[in-house]
Known about the structure:
Elements: E1 3-9, H1 13-24, E2 29-32, E3 49-50, H2 60-72, E4 76-78, E5 81-86, H3 90-100, E6 108-111, H4 112-118, E7 126-132, E8 136-138, H5 140-153, E9 157-159, E10 164-170, E11 173-178, E12 183-191, H6 197-203, E13 212-224, E14 233-236, E15 242-246, E16 249-253, E17 258-259, H7 269-280, E18 286-300, E19 307-310, E20 317-321, H8 331-343
Residues 9-15, 32-35, 40-43, 45-49, 162-164, 192-196, 200, 216, 218, 296-298, 323-329 line the site of flavin-adenine dinucleotide.
Amino acid sequence: MTTYDFAIVGAGIAGASLAAELAEGGARVLLLEAEDRPGYHSTGRSAAFWEECYGGPEIVPLTLASGEYLRDNGFLHQRGALYIGRQEDAGALDRFMERFGNTGATIERLHRETLAEKVLGLREDWTEAVWEPACADIDVAGLHAHFLARARKAGVDLECRALVDSLSRKDGHWTIKTAAGGTYKASWVVNAAGAWADSLAQLAGARPLGIGPLRRTVVQLRIDPVVPADQPLVLDISGQFYFKPEAGRLWLSPHDEIPSEPCDAAPEEIDVATAIDRFQQVVDCRIEAVERRWAGLRSFSPDRLPVYGRDPQVEGFAWFAGQGGYGIQTSPAAARLAAQLLLGAGRDAMTEKLDASLYDPARFA
Ligand SMILES: Cc1cc2nc3c(=O)[nH]c(=O)nc-3n(C[C@H](O)[C@H](O)[C@H](O)COP(=O)(O)OP(=O)(O)OC[C@H]3O[C@@H](n4cnc5c(N)ncnc54)[C@H](O)[C@@H]3O)c2cc1C
């Protein structure tokens, strides 16, 4: 039986990107996925944007470090983003400018005249905004397939329908068993199990870090007038909604964060209704149909920063989890950094400015 250097559990964007990086660094890598195909859970349900400020100042370096790779490989389509508010939100938008002013994100304060030009039918009470021109749509399916293709080319073995349900360690190696009866051996197990990260840690005898899945809902609306294709992503500065055009339709989220068990998340009617109600207070238009609705889980560690690196207590166990609401847009740099940490390799141009201690699992020890 092959003894792999790394067995990565979970083949969403996290596991796929890390598998590619580790294998290209010379490691023998096994990628195990519970579902019939990779990308069924959070990765397949995202709102597909790359937004420089999303997730706070400690996430910005990961997002910016990933930008060039995503752009150069054709995965970004520039759209621009607007954080908007009413008169009483002017202070919050000013504080946003201060908070992100020195992060390297490109942001500019706007007022009603320029704002109204950017959003068709914007109601008059929305007078304040921050403009972020670099924000872009991400081709998520293309990016995920790209990481899987890189991984395959570098020799990674991918096993689907391989729900890991037992981990035991002896003589410096893990024996990994799946519900389907598979048995594998590896020196390292890497936890890229998304919403299931804490459960997987328990299988390995590691202390769960408190990674909690939060449900987020998205609806696709057909509206009249049709939303212009080049309209920006619009986010509420108070975190009540965001929306953007998508192929002649509108994708809208109530920006919900409902605590959930790890599961195949589904949208609740109340969250769909809340999204529509909030949207109607922003844009004057007729909603003709709710064409689609979906939900996914965004999994956060207690400080809402991701967790990359070796477990401080359990030998041979590492984390690549807690990707929260920015696991797609940060994936190139996050995977490069995590692979460098696990392989003991030096930094490169993509990762040299990243502070790995921010994401170290040992911060919760
Ligand atoms: C509605 C929504 C909108 C979002 N919008 C954006 C956005 O615009 N931009 C952005 O960057 N991010 C966005 N995100 C966040 C992004 O989708 C996540 O951060 C990212 O997909 C997490 O990837 P992952 O690989 O960690 O998790 P997942 O894609 O969930 O993958 C984890 C995998 O692990 C597998 N697994 C779990 N346990 C086991 C086990 N025991 N054995 C084998 N396999 C196992 C699961 O089956 C799953 O496939 C959004 C998320 C949601 C829900």
